[in-house]
Amino acid sequence: MIEVVVERVVYGGEGLARHGGRVVLIPLTAPGDRALVELTEERSDFARARLVRLLDASPDRRDPICPYYGTCGGCQLQHLHYAAQHRIKRDIVRESLVRLGGLSWPGEIPLIPSEEFRYRLRAQVKVRVSEGRVEIGYYRPASHEMCAILECPLLSPELNAALERLRWEAPERFANVRALDLAQGEDGRVVVHPIGEPVAVSWSVRGITYAFDARTFFQANRFLLAELLGLVTEGEEGERALDLFCGVGFFAVPLARRFAEVIGVESDPRAVRFARLNARAHGVRNCRFVNERVHTWLVREGGRLRPVDLVVLDPPRGGLSRALICALARLMPERITYVSCNPATLARDLKWLLARGYVISSIVALDLFPQTFHVETIVKLRRASELP
Predict the structure, then answer these.
(1) Please, which residues have CB within 8 angstroms of residue 82's CB and are 6 or more apart in sequence?
(2) How does pLDDT run across 13-65, given as a tens digit for each residue?
(3) Cβ partners under 8 Å of residue 42, min gap 6
(4) With 70 as the cut, is the pLDDT of residue 110 above it?
(5) Averaged pLDDT score across all residues of the chain
(6) Are domains 1-61 and 122-203 of this chain identical in fold?
(7) Residue 28, Cβ neighbours under 10 Å: how many?
(8) Which architecture characterizes domain 122-203 according to CATH?
(9) CATH number of the 1-61 domain
(10) Of the candidates 218, 160, 211, 158, which has an alpha carbon nearest to the alpha carbon of residue 189?
């Protein structure tokens, strides 16, 4: 065992300490903790450890409310006061920009808070049948072993009630089923895939009603939907906008009220069907949706689209490919809004975009996933007056 002092919490939720000139990463620790830890993994440049005993506890600490915390892998920051979580997430975004992107942003990075608990309207849970009983839960940390739970404090009351009902279903219904996708509509109805009826639910945000189902991506935090939509769409207008990785049209449909033409591109055919349905439901006729990989479509069509006033990017965790960045640079949109769920890939992609003639106008973070290390970041860029 070794004694360490935790300096900060890094992306992934682990505390970072140093010992013998090497970084040591320790889950369930807080900035300022002095602790005894046991090494569990050693590499040439860093090590991982588990917390054995706190010698001096950080003032950022609190008692987690979930009895499964530390055993379940769903949360990483529940042992920290919510104000400390905010500070950590802002620092993670800024540190990622500097270390991975070489970007020194001089302005503030505000973080919009959420209700701490009961915020999720969508979730995927694991399921198994053990001794004739249905068990539901999440994976344990860094494992594919399931931690069975009775309820989750991050889920809405309606989703937790659905979990309780599912546990009393006939075990035969779960033959060959390892995971369940749940989604709640604004009316409280919950749909479950793959054992439930394949029906849609809906949620209204800033006067627009979006239909989706349990298999289709839709933002999970019911308390920050309006803030997210406003940050991306308000103040924008022009002739043509592209919504890349558009999902069910969350940004594209309201943007169609502000632009003469909007094109949404999405590889998931179910999401595209919902996007078209959502546009039709609101009488939107100047918005079309393309079911294709964003990279493939933009490389082929980008040269025919100019001029473009705005491109909205909301990619998966892996971010953008270099080829996609190059296609964007050839398109030369006046403005780009990048919605990112991964500060590391965001920093990398911003470095590429800035090298191709863009400058950052604003950076805002949203706490879409309290109690976890995840943070959403919205970066607005504009084309510099003189391109290199």
Answers:
(1) 113, 116, 370
(2) 999 999 988 999 999 999 999 999 999 999 988 999 999 999 999 999 999 99
(3) none
(4) yes
(5) 96
(6) yes
(7) 22
(8) Beta Barrel (2.40)
(9) 2.40.50.140
(10) 158
Fill in the amino acid letter for 129.
V
Nearest alpha-carbon partner for 178 in 142, 119, 135:
135
CB-neighbour burial class of residue 42 (10 A; exposed 0-12, middle 13-18, buried 19+): exposed
Fold for 97-115+219-383, please state it: Rossmann fold (3.40.50)
* CA 342/CA 233 separation, integer angstroms: 21
Tokens of 137: 């839960």
| 3-class DSSP assignment, residue 179 | strand
Q: Please report the sign of the dihedral spanned by the C-alpha atoms of residue 326, residue 328, residue 333, residue 334.
A: negative
The angle at the Cα of 202, spanning 336 to 149, to the nearest 5 degrees, equals 95
User: Residue ranges per domain, the chain?
Assistant: 1-61, 97-115+219-383, 122-203
Which tens digit of pLDDT belongs to each residue from 238-275?
999 999 999 999 999 999 999 999 999 999 999 999 99
CA 129 to mean position of chain CA atoms: 30
Q: Which residues of 193-228 are buried (b: 16+ CB within 10 A; e: fewer)?
A: beebeeebbbbebeebebbbbbebbbbbbbbbbebb
Q: Are 201 and 212 in contact (CB under 8 A)?
A: yes
Assign 327 to helix, strand or coil. Answer: helix
Residue 137 identity (one-letter amino acid): G
Element (H, E) at 134: strand 133-139
**DSSP single-letter state for residue 74:** S
Residue type, 336: I
